[in-house]
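Example record

One chain of 129 residues, shown exactly as stored in the release files.
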Amino acid sequence: MVRILILIIFAAIVFALAYTLFKAIPMKKKMTILVRAVTAAAIGLIMQNYMPFYMSLLAIVAISLMASLIYMKQLEKAQLEKVKQSEERRAARQKFLSRQSKVNLVKDDNQDLAKASGMDSMNPKRRES
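Predicted structure tokens for this chain:
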């Protein structure tokens, strides 16, 4: 019972410190990591009553490893989503720019045709004799 009380006190201190000290990290990330750490410690504490110390320590390491793997998979999915969105934006931008260049080419051709007719097509440095 005393161990559980110490775990609760430790968890409260860790949550308070994380909330006040780490302002740069988003709240969702902080709380996810802290809840997983406290859960691993609680499971280790419960296992310590029924199994030897090294087994509970091994369980804490295994739970922490599983939690970190799940967290990394979530980050990987988010990063892949960002890359996919950036590729879509890049493709849309290239499509827009290619349309703009086609419109500009048509405008340039029209300007060349307009310049070719009339006195504009003559060389301005040409001397009349």
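Notes: The longest helix spans residues 53-116.
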